[in-house]
Amino acid sequence: MTDPNWLDEREQRAWRGFLAVNAAVRGRIARQLQQETGLSSADYAVLVSLSEAPGGRLRVFQLRVAADWEKTRLTHQITRMTARGLVAREPCADDPRGAFVVLTEAGWDAITAAAPRHVEHVRHWFFDALGPEHVDALIEVNEAVTRHLLSASEPCSPCSSCSPSSPGDVPSSCDDVLP
Fold this sequence. Notes:
Elements: H1 9-37, H2 41-52, E1 57-59, H3 60-67, H4 71-83, E2 87-91, E3 99-103, H5 105-125, H6 132-151
Helix pairs in contact: 1-5, 2-5
């Protein structure tokens, strides 16, 4: 096995800074939103996806893709939100095995009340620290990384944690491979 291509000091600072800022901002926004609205960040993510969907409804697989969650996590989240009356499950007439997740009136009320608070927190904890040139640079960085991720179809490198066990297998634990 060859030696890893370690990050240099500048790259390490950028990477760790990105991780720290992401965690800190998301954490502050999540705590404030929970305190003010009673919604978790997971609740909010589901409600946003549904509120932006036609008729406030998505197939379960569409919601899973939108949230970028594992099937089990989404199933548990929908169950909790259904119990609280924020969403409902409805059968799919075209696919007897499929189902829709639908925003209820209580869900609409919750997202309508939470969205202005959420955007206020995003602005306060993130955008108020940036100038227009920073926002433009961030857009460029996000687009460059997204393009790179979309063009990558192979694991990052052959290593024990992300190498397939046999040819043609999809790696089970490498985060560098898009689903």
